[in-house]
Please model this.
Amino acid sequence: MKPMAMRDALLTRIWQSMATDPKIFFTSADFGSPVLDRIRADFPQRFINVGIAEQNLINISAGLALEGFTVFAYAIAPFITMRCYEQLRVSLALLSTVRRMNINLIGVGAGYSYVVSGPTHQCYEDLTLMRALPTFEVFSTADHVTAAALLERCTERAGPKYLRFDAQVLPVIYTDADQPPPLSTGFQRHRTGGDVTLIATGYMLHTALKVADRLAADGIAAGVIDLFDITGFDRDAMAETLAGQSGIVTMEEGFRGRGGIDALFFEYQSRRGTPLPHLAIGVEGGYRFELGTRSELHEQVGIGEVGVTAAVADFARRVSAC
Amino acid sequence: MTMMDSNFLRDKAHWVWRETLAIHRRAPETRLASSLSPIEIFVALYYGGVLDFDASEPLSETRDRCIISKGHGSICMYPILADLGFFPTEELQRVCHAGGFLGGIPDPIIPGYETVNGSLGHGLGVAAGTALALNRKGAPQQVFVLTGDGELHEGACWEAIMFAGQHGLDQLNLIVDNNKVAMLGYTDDIVTNGPLAQRLAAFGWNAVEVDGHDVEAVRAALLAMKADRGGKPKALIAHTLKGHGVPGLENAALSHIINPKPELIDTLLAERP
Model:
C-alpha cells in the first residue's frame, strides 16, 4: 500500500461523503491541500475559508454545528488548538455539553513534522491542552489508514473531536485491509513484549517499532502499542494487554512531564492500582531553534531512536532486576 | 402601531426594569447596571413582534435565533422569559440559589438562551456561523445577536464582522448595547469604538443608530432591520445608559461593579410602581 498524507486520506473520504451527505460542511483557516481543492471546487456551498482567523474558524463552525451541520474545521495544529483555545472551551467544549453539535478539528503538523519551521509551527503542547477539555475526543494517528478510518467516527458520533495529524507522509502501519485499526479499543498492540511495553502515539509509533527492533538485537523483548484514541481507549483492554509486563514506556512527540500521554498513563495506572514502573519519553529542554532533520532534532531532545533505545534498555534491565 | 401598543411596550419595559431591580435585590451577585441598559432592546425584540419564537419549544426550527453575547448584562431577560412562558415564574425567586438554573451569568441550560454567554467576544462569531448555516439551508429565519460596546474590544468580534461583510450575511442582525461603560471606566477612555456606524459600514454592513431607551424607536429600527435582506449584514447601535434609572449608578464610570444599597432599591421600587 502506497503511503499518503494523513490529511489527504481523510479529506478524500470527506470529499466522497459530501456527495451523499448534505450535512457535511468543511471550514478552513486559509489552509489547503490538493484534495481540499476538490472539495472547494465540487462543494462551494459547503466549504468556506474564513481567512487567517482561527478564533472565527471555531465560532463560525460552532454556529454551523448548532444548525445541524457535521463540521470539519481544518488548520495547522498549533493554531487550531492554541490560537483559539478560549473558543474551543466556550463555543465547543462548554456549549456541546448542552447543545448537540458535531465538530471535528483536523490539526496538521503534530510534533516536529514542520521540521524547519521552528517552534511556532511545531506542536508539542496540544495533546495536553486538548485532553484537558472534558467533552473533547482526541485522536493521534500513526498512519494514513487510521486517519481515513476516523471518518465514520467523526460523522456518526456527535461532540467535539480533535484529530492530530502528522504533516509528513509516514509509512503504512495497517497494511492489511482485513485488519484495520481497532477504533473500538482505541489502540493496537503490534509487538508482544516480555519485559517492557512501549506505548507510543503518532510519529513515535514508528520510532517505537525501530527501538523494539534494536532492543530485540540486545535480547530485550519489548512490546509496542499504537495508542490512537487518546481520550477513549478501552481501559480494561489496555490492562489485559499490559498484564505480566515489568514496565511501560510512554513515547510522545510532546513535552515530557507536561500533561501529555505520560501523565495520562500515570493517572491511568494509579487509578487502577498496582502501577508498573513507567519511563516517560517526551521532548526535553523546552523550545529550541536548532535546524536539522527530524530524527536529528529528535535525538537532541531525547526522543530519537538511538537515545530512546539506550534509555529503554537501561529501564528494562532495572525493572527486570526488581 | 397604535397608542395602546406603544403604551404596552413602555409599561412592559418599566415592569422589566422593576423586576430586574427586584432580582438584583435578592441576588446581588447579578450584574445590575449592564442589565438595565438593554431592557428596551429585549422588550422590543420579544414583545414588539420582531422575533419569532415558541416558548413551548425554545429550539424550534422556525424560531429566529437570539444570541445574547453580553450574557452577564442580561439579567433583565429572566423576567421576560418567565413572563413569556419559557420557564415558571417561581424560578425568579431562585436566581443564584442552589437548585435553580438562573445563574449570575446566564447559560444555555436556560430555556430561551441559545449559547454560552458572558465570556465576551464569542456570540457574534457564533451568530455569523448560524446565519451562514441558515443561508445554506435556505431557511428564512434570522439571527439577532446582542453585544456590549466594551465587548467589541475583543478581536474575535472583528474577525466575525469582516467575515459577515465579506459573505453578505443579510440574516445577521447585530445590536450593540452602546452603554459606553466597560468595567473600569468609559469605553472612550479605554479604547474607543470611534465612529462605530461608519466603521461597520466600512466593513460592508448596514448600520443605523437609535436611542436605545425609546422602545418605540428601537422596535421600529429592529423591524426595519429584519425586513432588510439587501445582501449585507445589519447593525443597530442602540445608545443606552448603563444603570439606567438608578441614581448613582446611571452612566457612572464604575457602574459595572457598584452594587446599589438594598434600601435604595426598595425606595425606587416604592416610588416608581
